[in-house]
């Protein structure tokens, strides 16, 4: 059996981001009077940003009602849009475009999913030209489904968009423990973690992915070793 769809996370997996997400989240929370550490915020990478904001507000005994969470989230989104549109350090992860092309040449569709809101995701996709260059087939964000990670909703939405009915034919690739849990919840046939983002190898291994890669461009060699898809 071959794979039909590869679902990639964005920041930390296919997008190089030198801690800009955690910094923007910290700045937005600080503006609201919540002084969270970067270490605590990094541990929440991969989760929906409203959920991360609510968690930090509660942890600091601050109001975490819907209106307050929405206010902080709106601040965070604007900071991320400003950053992702212009920051020189933001770029595709090394090998991302090549891996997308390699998979698509072998009949594997490419889906992107993210805990960002759709406007941030589209900002990156447009900046990198991934859709215009025909490198991706679909993209989804946490604000477009009922539940974000670790629920399987985003993966299932991408499967529907790409016409894939069997989750065992899906590869999930991400840089956080919640990416791994998302892949397991969806029943993906292969769940791959990468060390290019929020988590180190040992931190990922405790969540039992099928493989841990140090570079995204190691994925073709992994698939060749396991015989799916045909690497020829």
From TrEMBL:
Q: What is this protein called?
A: HAD hydrolase-like protein
Signal peptide (residue range): none
Q: Which InterPro entries match?
A: HAD-like_hydrolase_sf (IPR050155), HAD-like_sf (IPR036412), HAD_sf (IPR023214), PGP-like_dom2 (IPR023198)
User: Pfam families recorded for this chain?
Assistant: Hydrolase
Please give the superkingdom of this protein's source. Bacteria
């Amino acid at each position: 059996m071959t794979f039909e769809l590869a679902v990639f996370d964005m920041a930390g997996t296919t997008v190089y981001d030198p801690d800009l997400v955690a910094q923007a989240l910290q700045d937005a929370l600080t503006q609201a009077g919540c002084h969270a550490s970067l270490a605590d915020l990094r541990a929440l990478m991969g989760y929906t940003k409203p959920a991360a904001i609510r968690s930090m507000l509660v942890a600091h005994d601050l109001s975490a009602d819907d209106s307050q969470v929405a206010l902080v989230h709106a601040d965070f989104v604007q900071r991320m849009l400003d950053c992702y549109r212009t920051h020189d350090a933001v770029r595709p992860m090394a090998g991302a475009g090549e891996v997308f092309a390699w998979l698509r040449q072998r009949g594997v569709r490419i889906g992107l999913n993210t805990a960002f809101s759709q406007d941030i995701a589209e900002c990156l996709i447009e900046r990198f030209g991934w859709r215009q260059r025909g490198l991706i087939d679909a993209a989804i964000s946490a604000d477009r489904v009922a539940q974000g990670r670790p629920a399987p909703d985003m993966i299932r939405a991408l499967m529907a968009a790409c016409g894939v009915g069997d989750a065992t034919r899906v590869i999930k690739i991400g840089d956080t423990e919640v990416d791994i849990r998302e892949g397991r919840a969806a029943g993906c046939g292969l769940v791959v973690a990468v060390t290019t983002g929020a988590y180190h190898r040992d931190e990922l291994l405790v969540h039992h992915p099928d493989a841990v890669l140090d570079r995204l461009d190691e994925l073709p060699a992994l698939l060749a070793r396991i015989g799916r898809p045909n690497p020829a």
